[in-house]
């Protein structure tokens, strides 16, 4: 086993590192329309391609909208910035 004396650092002030994830304070309700394959926020479609990093996936059973008594999933993710 290799041990190192490096410790993680935490900074409250200053600029965020360039490789840090930016998670908004209020989640944005983005949905994927399975029929058209488009990502949408509200009634605005944003296309079919989206680069993301998945933070969490949760599986639920219940009713959602016009669909009742079925399995459905909730995906928490952040968008990946194109370089």
Brief overview, please?
The chain has 83 residues and is mostly beta strands.
- Overall form: elongated
**Topology as a string of helices (H) and strands (E):** EEEEE
**Gap from first CA to last CA:** 37 Å
Q: How many strands?
A: 5
Helicity level: under 10%
The gyration radius over C-alpha positions equals 18 Å
Explain what you see:
The protein has strands spanning 30-33, 38-41, 44-45, 52-64, 67-79. With 83 residues, the protein is mostly beta strands. It has a 3-stranded antiparallel β-sheet with strand order 1-2-3, with no helix packed on it. The termini are far apart. The model has no long low-confidence stretch (mean pLDDT 77).
Throw out a few tags for this protein.
83 residues, mainly beta, two-stranded antiparallel sheet, 0% helix
SSE topology sketch:
Blueprint: E1 30-33, E2 38-41, E3 44-45, E4 52-64, E5 67-79
Antiparallel strand pairs: 1-2, 2-3, 4-5
